[in-house]
Amino acid sequence: MNRQVLNSCILFIVAIFLQVLIFKRINLSFGDFDYFHFIIFPIIIISLPLKTPRSLVIIIGFLSGICIDMFYDSPGIHASAAVFVAFIRPIILRFLEPYEGYKIDLNPTLKNMGFNWYLPYISSMLFIYMFFYFSVEAFSFVYYFDILMRTIFSFIASVIILLIYEIIASARS
Amino acid sequence: MQNLLLLLAKYGSWILFVILEVFCFYLITNYNSKQEKIFIHSANLISGQFNNRINTLSDYFKLKDQNDSLRVENAKLLQQILNIPELALSEEKVKKDTFLNKFELIPANICSKTLHLRNNHFTICKGEKDGIKPGMGVLSKNGIVGIVKDVSENYAHILNLLNSQIRISAIIKDKEYHGNLVWKGKNHKILHLEAIPKHANIEVGDEIITSGYSTIFPKGFDVGKVMNFSIPSGSNNYEIEVEINNDLYTVHTLYVVSNRYADEQLQLEKENSDE
Question: What's A6's domain CATH number?
Answer without folding.
Answer: 1.10.1760
